Amino acid sequence: MEAKAETETPVTGAKGADAAPRTVVDIDKLSLTFRTADGPVHALSEVDLKVAHGDFVSLIGPSGCGKTTLLRTIADLEQPTGGSINVNGISAHQARLDRSYGYVFQAAALYPWRNIERNVTLPLEIMGVPKAERRQRAKDYLELVNLSGFEKKFPWQLSGGMQQRASIARALCFDPELLLMDEPFGALDEIVRDHLNEQLLQLWDKTRKTVVFVTHSIPEAVFLSSRIVVMSPRPGRITDVIETNFPRDRTLDIRETPEFLEVAHRVREGLRAGHSYDD
Amino acid sequence: MTTEAAIPLRPSLFTRLMAGRAGPVAVVSLAIVVLWYLGAVYMNAPVQIDRYERGKVEWTFGQLVADTLEQDRPVLPAPHQILVEMDKTILGKKITSRRSLVYHAWITLSSALAGFLTGAVLGIVLAVGIVHKRTLDKSLMPWIIASQTIPILAIAPMVVVVLGTIQPITEFNDQVIGNSGFVQKALVSTYLCFFPVTIGMVKGFRSPDILSLDLMRTYSASRWQTFRMLRWPAALPFLFTSLKISIAASMVGAIVAELPTGAQAGLGARMLQGSYHGQMINIWSALLTAALISGMLVALVGVFEKFTTRLMGGRP
Hints:
The structure holds 2 protein chains of 2 kinds. In chain A, 33% of the residues lie in helices and 25% in strands. By secondary structure, chain A is α/β, with parallel strands linked by helices. Chain A folds into 2 domains: 23-100 and 178-273, 3-Layer(aba) Sandwich (Rossmann fold), CATH 3.40.50.300; 112-175, no CATH class. In chain A, helix 7 (190-207) links the parallel strand 7 and strand 8 (210-215). In chain A, helix 5 (131-144) packs across helix 6 (160-172). Chain B has helices spanning 2-6, 13-19, 22-54, 61-68, 79-91, 101-132, 134-147, 152-164, 167-177, 182-205, 210-218, 223-258, 267-276, 280-311. The relative contact order of chain B is 0.10.
């Protein structure tokens, strides 16, 4: 039983969306099998997914459903064993070499010996951007994530939420079109997470980036996404794709609305259908 | 509760002394000095009693104790005898004099430092190679470990003798540096020094977690960039630990290298001459000087470490 993503529909409800937004991520019959000592593990099986420009796509599913693996494959951090994957119309590998995406990991992964400014500008340093411009960009992007004034602080002087915001600034500072986020707020408490969700949504609205976001929180996925991709494990596959229709400038309040609860319900049903909790 | 009442109480002087580092160190030092004096009396007594009996002198226990601590050629010199000798040979002589311990210490120290520097560089270079090339990891590592299973006392004479017959090296030693055996001694030091650095730095270069390495991959950073911006800074704490071990070992290497050739100058040479002439006081003062120098060198690396850690935003 293979539920294919209905991919061609553009983001609806988004104000000012292009008539036919181009495809940023194009995944076709993607499979990935890890060879382990206990035999092959089918992490991904026949996954089809298209992400349009300006989309906010969440991958949701229980642990082991391959959502992180899928994200890592888009980022060319894992190699697929079957199917194809294109980013911006070129191979994922070439896209990585072109630095076409910013990646935010589960942990902030800030380098402890660099202050926040130099952590944020790490990608720019690698790309050979001159120092004066690096300074300016650090200032701009730290302002964007509400961390102005923390340039000279070292990571250990920041809270977990602030560290993760700095890592988002780092992913944004070289202005990639695509943002890949792997449970970026998974390690944070719910109050901080709610707050960062709202900020991320504003950021998305402001910067018009395309986002692929991995989570295992249903409210987070429903609140943030224009499209929710429900995945299930063994083998990792897509079982449902749900379009949401909330305004781009929504706030956390929409979580109380019937529409929100309805989408959340459908996600929960999708997760339940694809997953037997007995095994 | 009784514990609450106890909090405002000022801790006793003893407690406060022992809370820092000075107190415990002082106690241990004092214990060593006391044991040393007891040992000196015990070990020098037979000779002293023998002397009394041959001279048919009446002696008391108090006199025995006093005399055992003031012998010219004691079996175990008392601490104050060593300090007097060190005062005489370090502060009491011009440092260019062959009787000055500073002169001898510099000859050993200069070789040791040269060996330390080459050893540290060699150690880092080997570690870089091992981390980046699988074949080097497999082929070099066993040899590097095997190299340290050979006693340095067996290696030193071979190095000294073999290098001593190579004309350019002998000329360099005699004419350029004016210090015979400089290169040989430095090489023995190098042999001891590179190992801790290699082992430490291989671990250090491999210390970044997968997340940090993946981050570099997402920026398609080159290997050199990954090395410069991730592996090297991550390895620095390991480097300083290794350097502390190495710099102490460098003095050992230089001293050991002075022994087999009967070198004329250097702390090792002083020890050797002391043993020829049964001058235990000379041996001990050379030894204590070497220990003091090593201690200062390790402390110096520690200062660099603190400085670097602060620059790198370490937690105070």
